[in-house]
Amino acid sequence: MTDLLVELANDRLAVSINPLGAELWSMRDADGRELMTDADPRWWTGRAPLLFPFVGRLANDQYRLGEAVYTLPQHGFARRRKFSLIELARSSALFRLEADAETRAQYPFDFALDVAFDLTASTLAVRVTVRNDGDAVMPFSFGFHPAFAWPLPYGDAGVGHRILFDEPEDAPIRRVAAGSGLIAAAGETSPALGRILVPTAEDFERDAMIWDRLASRGLLWGAPDAPNLRIDFPDTPWLALWQKPGAHYLCIEPWAGIADPLGFTGDVWAKPGIMRLLPGEARRFRLAISLVASS
How far is Cα 294 from Cα 95, in angstroms, rounded to an integer? Predict the structure, then answer.
């Protein structure tokens, strides 16, 4: 285990990864320009936490499994745990987190969480594998939470930056209920105009925007006529966009799971977005971040 950032590079991209949370810490182009958040502590010091074993907040930060009740913080514990560095090469790395006494006190399952990073040309591929190493069926959800620079270091100072979805996103979105961290019952009109969303700081005064009827599995982020980031997430059917209003980042968060709905009191198996993993089974989630020419 190393406490230093792990560095990967090729002739087009360089990335830094923190073993604490196996968190993508920095992504830079060939000229050293940063493509991720500046992590200004006035706003948010996170960079790209991994959300496991559950996405979002639980009601009262607790969940019920049969007759037992467990306490778990928002977005789970993986982002606060050190991962073991299993393999390292110039442009690839593999990290692993396995269950121990501390995780079992919060989540009574034997799991392995592998996170593989691979740089190829102008793309960083992240592959997360969740494996059930125990004897019981395992409930879980998973999410990515990367924060990208807003603005990107190309062109203007943020005016004109937009999300360009692969498909029109006209279905209603969900919001977090004020002061709770839980999902409000009522949806609201999508802010996207077909495939295009031009976000503003005011969009996030009521927390994240969440697409739980998402048509796209990929999008572009950036300004027209400038280099963009292409984000692909083939295995995660929901998407959240979030920032602290006025900060210098936009979180583009592909999720397979969601916070508790407001008023939810059921067993964890009834929680929206929960997946079942049989003993010995594994499930993979992929995220690809590519620096592409202007669109």
Answer: 33
Which CATH number is associated with domain 6-292? 2.70.98.10
CA-closest candidate to residue 260, choices 276, 272, 246, 274: 272
Cite the DSSP H helix spans in 48-190: 101-106
| β-pairing verdict for 62-65 and 68-71 | antiparallel
Cβ atoms of 124 and 16 within 8 Å: the answer is no
Look at residue 158 in the predicted model and tell me its pLDDT: 52
Could you report the per-residue pLDDT of 203-217, keeping only the tens digit for each?
999 899 999 999 999
Check pLDDT > 50 for residue 1.
no
CA distance 238 to 243: 17
Four-CA torsion 244, 247, 249, 253, nearest 10 degrees: 0
Q: Percent of the chain, pLDDT > 90?
A: 92
